[in-house]
């Protein structure tokens, strides 16, 4: 009961605020047809102010549209909250003959947001846009590299019909792009467990030892999980730029899931330090 009162209070307060700020649009409905309302974001909540209006939407799986029906009676209002917090409010009226059955609601119709926009949220949104822009650039540049036929050298190793090769290493802005190819020349599909890049350091002295440091890619483009029999797959790893001294080298480690066709592909510091 308290929840219902709270919802109705919110409905009335938002409706009153919207009436004060601007004239609300009117949506007409009746009891013989469904009037569809399509919103810019999935619907999280929809409420009508009177029982003679029914607004139905998928409460289990958020969708972009809801259906409005009405019985004869006094006008009321409809309040809809989208997944992103945008609030929409409309006058709803019964009308026997309808001239419009579909409403495509623009974001500009929103009367506000349930969460106040503060400086921190603006910064967060700016940061998200920056990430999205960078990811978009990675996507475009990786696609460009896959369409090129440029090669940096013969960097290849195989095991039981599985061939791992690095076709190209490209430096752009602050990143290194590794164009990688896997060929499955065997008679069995290849399920990839992981493909890791590590930096190996050879310790000098009487007791020689090797130390490996895993390098986390900042973006992977078109990385497959399976390479079927006879298939060749090309994809790109993007990493922050780095260089290697003479006693260090890069190693790609390809590991098969539930199998033993594993490969270690060693890349000399010369290729890393002189990318295309």
In a nutshell, what does this entry contain?
The chain is an alpha+beta fold. The chain is 20% helix and 43% strand.
Keywords:
19 strands, alpha+beta, disordered N terminus, 276 residues, five-stranded antiparallel beta sheet, 20% helix
Description:
The protein has 276 residues and is of the alpha+beta class. Helix content is 20%, strand content 43%. It has 3 helices and 19 strands. The protein has helices at 2-21, 119-147, 269-273, and strands at residues 26-29, 35-38, 43-48, 53-56, 65-70, 76-82, 86-94, 102-104, 112-113, 156-159, 162-172, 175-184, 190-203, 209-215, 219-221, 226-227, 232-240, 248-256, 263-267. Strands 1, 3, 6, 7 and 9 form a 5-stranded mixed sheet that branches. The model is unreliable at 1-22 (pLDDT under 50).
Instruction: Round the mean pLDDT to the nearest integer and report it.
Output: 85
Structural class label: alpha+beta
Strand content: 35-45%
Q: Which percent range fits the helix content?
A: 10-25%
Radius of gyration: 30 Å
- Helix count equals 3
Order of helices and strands: HEEEEEEEEEHEEEEEEEEEEH
Count of extended strands: 19
Shape: elongated
Q: Helix and strand layout, with pairings?
A:
Elements: H1 2-21, E1 26-29, E2 35-38, E3 43-48, E4 53-56, E5 65-70, E6 76-82, E7 86-94, E8 102-104, E9 112-113, H2 119-147, E10 156-159, E11 162-172, E12 175-184, E13 190-203, E14 209-215, E15 219-221, E16 226-227, E17 232-240, E18 248-256, E19 263-267, H3 269-273
Parallel strand pairs: 1-7, 2-8
Antiparallel strand pairs: 2-5, 3-6, 4-5, 6-7, 7-9, 10-11, 11-12, 12-17, 13-14, 13-16, 13-18, 15-17, 18-19
